[in-house]
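Wed. Picked up where I left off yesterday with Scaffold protein Nfu/NifU N-terminal domain-containing protein. The coffee machine is broken again, so keeping this brief.
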Amino acid sequence: MTVIRSLNKFSTPKVFARFLTFQTLSTPNENALKFVSPTKIVPMENKTFEFTSSLQAVHSPLALKLFKLPGVRSVMLGPDFLTVNKQDHVNWAHLRPEVSSLLDKFLTEKQEPVITKELIEATEKEAAEADADDSEIVSMIKELIETRIRPAIQDDGGDIEYKAFDEETGTVFLKLQGACKSCSASEDTLKHGIESMLKHYVEEVQEVEQILDPEEEIALKEFERLEQNLKSKKNAEASPPPSL
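Structure written out below (tokens, as returned):
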């Protein structure tokens, strides 16, 4: 919200409030919403930053404020949009207006940067060093990701980050972010969409694997353990009782 004061010598000061209008878009992930801003958010071309906790968000004053809202699970900041992942028990009817109000206040007052200068410089340096060491195959993979894959994924409030390529096995390691991170369709996106495209254009690619954060790996193991327990219980109930 921007405050504009109108002054002249014949009238008392009048205050007008200018509000930003954010377009809120649903995503394939019911726990994620994409907020499209009429103004620039991240001051880097086609770059996103994801934060999964307030500890990770120390270099983003905006993300830190968003994590103070009850129910915010993760935040991904993009050039002109951001994606908020909520916890399962939280209702968007309550959280969405709080996020919009916070964004309006933060982006119009401009009292703090969205991300710090230190994070921008570190990111640019890391990207330059990585590109300098890229092989021809890795350069092709990265170009496909940037031009063919990322735009489509960002439309759905997510993003994808190249991590590594194993030349011996032909495996590309990627990290899904934003709305794609905890989406039930992420495996289909990874295998049937991204893997198929990379294998089609780069013959050295044999498969694509997703890299998970430590907390995601723990959650996946817990889910697999729960499924196994339910399966064992179901089999036990289906077994006939022992004869006397």
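Quick read: The chain has a mean pLDDT of 84.
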